[in-house]
Structures are given as structure tokens and as C-alpha cells.
């Protein structure tokens, strides 16, 4: 597939779900001229592998432990600018797409895309330098929503993540070294700022913004 005929396109794949990663690897393995040379479970491991192996393409999820995909993309762009980076994600909001592109991603496709789109994305990125699936291209035409950090303080984001993980005020207070009453005050202010009235709505907001996994 490489235009210079120097061998297969070498891909490093990153996703924290082993089953998902194995499935994507199997699909990539069916594409002529593509070789998955390494796999990572988080952004830190991905950076180490890219530094060591210098692949042609990184294909990464966004939501991963320790360091997320967007932070890893920004770091790789700085350290290995020749590597082309594709996001393969379940998040399709314009905010996520634009953040990924601003960090250095040259392509973005959804995890529920048809299998042929994997090959299409790799061929397009190698040939033209970019690939955005039709769904994502449409999203890019939409105005950006405010990010969670635009709407909430760092402390409120911290508390919201724990609320969305199902933790009660006492647990959150213990984790953050606060009193339960202080946590309750923060929660009330979060609801007021976001104009949301219950925990279920807060959880949906946190998932939509990528603060927690569904």
C-alpha cells in the first residue's frame, strides 16, 4: 500500500478493551499491505511504543486510562510528527472531533463504522494525509458545543466524574478530602450551572462530554 513500495503500512493500535482491540486487529489483518506491529492499552504505553517503533499510522481510541487518546496524540505529534494518527472512537460530538484534530489527529472514524471504512481510512491517510468518515465530516460543519471545562471548574469536574461513577456524597468526600456537605453544595452548583435536575441527567452529560465511559 505504501506509495514508495518500501513494505506494508505499519500500524500501532491503542484501545483499553482487549476484545475490541483484538477485533480491530483482526479486521486490519485482512487488509492487504497493512500490518499491526504493536498494541497499547493506554496513552502512556502508546507513546512508548511509537517512540520505539516509529510506525506509519497510529489508530487510537480516545477514552483510555492513565492518559487519554487526545493527550497521547498531542504528545506523539510533538515527538514523532511524521506519524499519522487516526482516531477510532464511539464519541461523535463536534467537540471531541475538533479537539482530536487540534491535537494532531489527521483522521476520525466511528467504532460502529462498516469494516470497509477501516481500509478506506488507512488508504486515504497514506495517500492524502487525512480521512474523516461521512458522519464525522458532517459533525465538523456543526458549531462547537461548550466543553465541560468551559462550563465547570476543575473541582466541579472532579466531583461530577465521581457522581457519574455512582459514588455517594460520603464516598466522594472521603476520596477528595472534603466534607459531605461541601460535596452537596458543589453538586447543587453543578446542577444549577448545567440546568440539570437529577443524577441521571448529570451522568448522561458526563458520558456525552467523555468524562466517564458509558
From TrEMBL:
Keyword presence, Phosphoprotein: yes
Return the Gene3D superfamilies for the record: 3.40.50.2300
Q: Which residues form the Response regulatory domain?
A: 10-126
* UniProt cross-references to InterPro entries, sorted A to Z: CheY-like_superfamily, NreC/VraR/RcsB-like_REC, Sig_transdc_resp-reg_C-effctor, Sig_transdc_resp-reg_receiver, Tscrpt_reg_LuxR_C, WalR-like
- Give the molecular function GO annotations: DNA binding
Which GO terms of type biological process are on file? phosphorelay signal transduction system; regulation of DNA-templated transcription
| Residue list for modification 4-aspartylphosphate | 61
Tell me where in this chain the HTH luxR-type domain is found: 145-210
| SUPFAM superfamilies linked | C-terminal effector domain of the bipartite response regulators (SSF46894), CheY-like (SSF52172)
The keyword Flavoprotein appears for this protein: no
Which keywords has UniProt assigned to this entry?
A: DNA-binding, Phosphoprotein
Identify this protein by name: Response regulator transcription factor
- Organism for this UniProt entry: Ramlibacter humi
